[in-house]
Design goal:
4 helices
């Protein structure tokens, strides 16, 4: 048993943690594209000290500014994901309406 994990082992471990995190939020059926974006959001909000920004009262002004900037980046990523999902829903709704209109006209 080696002391150092290989890059592949680290990636598998990280992916398993991410899958559990998604399952905890009922998001395990995301597409690969959405998964990647959610992973970026998670990295912005968690990996850069999101919780530290809220709990670290003794941080310097510069550290707090960096944490706030990272939080804003995470929120921006979330907004892009919501925009993309909204666009997908709108296109699906338009297709459903089109199919229903065609079905009504064929009666």
């Amino acid at each position: 048993m080696g002391l150092l994990k290989s890059r592949e082992e680290k990636e598998q471990e990280q992916r398993a943690k991410m899958q559990q995190w998604l399952r905890d939020r009922s998001l395990e059926d995301l597409s690969d594209e959405d998964y990647a974006q959610v992973d970026r959001i998670r990295a912005e909000l968690w990996g850069t000290g999101f919780l530290g920004a809220l709990n670290n009262i003794t941080a310097t002004d510069k550290e707090l500014q960096i944490n706030i900037q990272n939080i804003l980046l995470g929120i921006s990523e979330q907004n892009w994901l919501l925009i993309k999902q909204n666009d997908k829903l709108n296109k699906q709704n338009e297709e459903i309406i089109k199919l229903l209109k065609a079905k009504v006209q064929n009666r």
